[in-house]
Amino acid sequence: MRLTRRKFVLSALSAGALSALPALFSGCSVSSKAGTAIPAGTSGRQFGSSADIVFPQGFFWGAATASYQIEGSWNEDGKGESIWDRFAHTPGKIKNGDTGDVACDSYHRWREDIALMRAMNLNSYRFSISWPRIQPSGSGGVNPKGIDYYNRLVDGLLEAHIRPFVTLYHWDLPQALEDAGGWPNRDTAARFADYAQLVAQALGDRVSDWMLFNEPDAFLDLGYLEGTHAPGRKSLLDFLRATHIVNLAQGEGFRALKAARPKARVGGAFSMSSCEPAGHSEEDKLAAERAHAITNIWFLEPALRGRYPEALTFLPETAMGVKSGDMEKTRAPLDFIGINLYYRTIASAPAAMERAVHAQEWLFPVKMDPGHEGPMTDIGWEVWPKSLYDMVMRITRDYNRPVIEITESGCAYNDGPDRSGVIHDTRRVSYHHDYLAALAQAMAEGADVRGYHAWSLMDNFEWADGFSQRFGLAYVDYKTQKRIIKDSGRWYAGVAAESRVGPG
Ligand code: FCB
């Protein structure tokens, strides 16, 4: 079981992967830029739990899902194979041999899912489009049956007064594009831009709010470096190249979408985690800055400032395949920044021993560990609401008070129905209560946050963990596909109805 998803720098570099590429990495230097201080305080649960917290009128109360995790119907109505279909069908890749072939069967049960949202009083639904449903082999014209599914879904949401909040890429690349080289291949950026334009043309008369990518940092790390997610590659070079191509795709996709729909609001959903220094030493503080650059802004700085983060100057741009003129192309003045946040990261300088053995300090720029002081969820992630406060404040300060949406936050607790069929998931209520309290504090201090999307609307296929981890506000019985709103879903319905979070 994975602990957190973003430990790659230490694991990749300690495996000695970089030493295989001496020529590419020579001449790299380490920036010593000091960053914004993280507010002091160590308690994970310190935000106003004794009073009502009122959110602004018009705040978006939502839930999030992703195509591969809920739709099923993996080969229906002309859909092409995705890298997740291929990966999950490969024995040994997914816990218990689970696959997303059926998942929550949302491809057929989307009306029931909209009914769940209505019962929870949601006014925003973040879902993703399956690229191979639209372009079965990743290029060429639109598969009409694929786009029809999303037409029906969008119309159904609008009828229910729920904002369709659409992610273009939540990890299910058409397998044909992986066969042609995948994300390390420069052409994939152009393919993504074409796809973005096609979808914007088809749905953009009714959808106005879009995210280009979900968590580039996570899908590239796990899919190309660690190999635990699709497409299952373990190559430092592929990973580095892919990070640059996705940054290019972000810029190209942004422009393509805006060309089709100039008034669209276009952002991204980035995996973030506040990076705290493990101790008080200058080395640990520098490590925290590097961890922040790696974890939070590797895909934000190129979009907003046309450069890689200063604290990442140890990255080898030659190995990444950066060409002259590229950094202009990565620019995408995003209309909002989506934050997916679950936990925090503790950063420290590599031990002296590690440095001595490996001689070059840049081989070990930062060690990143998950926190362990707060309660742990069933998937092994620490509950730490302050991470959300810290991250929202940092993005607010560093990027001049941008519009922010919380595009995901949530927890895996595997509570099931009791004898009367009720799911008392009190720990999930506490989680969302405390993270919302932390968010409210950031908003009171000036952050411009427009919405909160619980991960997830319902239990679903949790990638390499299969169906073993339940994140939903609604329970799914995978044998019958029956959905049951959990206590947390009922609680969230009250929050959404009144735009108010009661005392914890
Ligand atoms: C996020 C992913 C989402 C889901 C949650 C638990 O990193 O974006 O698909 O797996 O984690």
From TrEMBL:
<feature type="active site" description="Nucleophile">
    <location>
        <position position="408"/>
    </location>
</feature>
<keyword id="KW-0732">Signal</keyword>
<keyword id="KW-0119">Carbohydrate metabolism</keyword>
<feature type="signal peptide">
    <location>
        <begin position="1"/>
        <end position="25"/>
    </location>
</feature>
<dbReference type="InterPro" id="IPR017853">
    <property type="entry name" value="GH"/>
</dbReference>
<keyword id="KW-0624">Polysaccharide degradation</keyword>
<feature type="binding site">
    <location>
        <begin position="462"/>
        <end position="463"/>
    </location>
    <ligand>
        <name>substrate</name>
    </ligand>
</feature>
<feature type="active site" description="Proton donor">
    <location>
        <position position="215"/>
    </location>
</feature>
<keyword id="KW-0326">Glycosidase</keyword>
<dbReference type="InterPro" id="IPR001360">
    <property type="entry name" value="Glyco_hydro_1"/>
</dbReference>
<dbReference type="GO" id="GO:0030245">
    <property type="term" value="P:cellulose catabolic process"/>
</dbReference>
<feature type="binding site">
    <location>
        <position position="69"/>
    </location>
    <ligand>
        <name>substrate</name>
    </ligand>
</feature>
<dbReference type="GO" id="GO:0005829">
    <property type="term" value="C:cytosol"/>
</dbReference>
<dbReference type="InterPro" id="IPR006311">
    <property type="entry name" value="TAT_signal"/>
</dbReference>
<feature type="binding site">
    <location>
        <position position="342"/>
    </location>
    <ligand>
        <name>substrate</name>
    </ligand>
</feature>
<dbReference type="Pfam" id="PF00232">
    <property type="entry name" value="Glyco_hydro_1"/>
</dbReference>
<keyword id="KW-0136">Cellulose degradation</keyword>
<feature type="binding site">
    <location>
        <position position="170"/>
    </location>
    <ligand>
        <name>substrate</name>
    </ligand>
</feature>
<protein>
    <recommendedName>
        <fullName>Beta-glucosidase</fullName>
        <ecNumber>3.2.1.21</ecNumber>
    </recommendedName>
</protein>
<dbReference type="GO" id="GO:0008422">
    <property type="term" value="F:beta-glucosidase activity"/>
</dbReference>
<comment type="similarity">
    <text>Belongs to the glycosyl hydrolase 1 family.</text>
</comment>
<feature type="binding site">
    <location>
        <position position="455"/>
    </location>
    <ligand>
        <name>substrate</name>
    </ligand>
</feature>
<dbReference type="InterPro" id="IPR017736">
    <property type="entry name" value="Glyco_hydro_1_beta-glucosidase"/>
</dbReference>
<keyword id="KW-0378">Hydrolase</keyword>
<dbReference type="InterPro" id="IPR033132">
    <property type="entry name" value="GH_1_N_CS"/>
</dbReference>
<feature type="binding site">
    <location>
        <position position="214"/>
    </location>
    <ligand>
        <name>substrate</name>
    </ligand>
</feature>
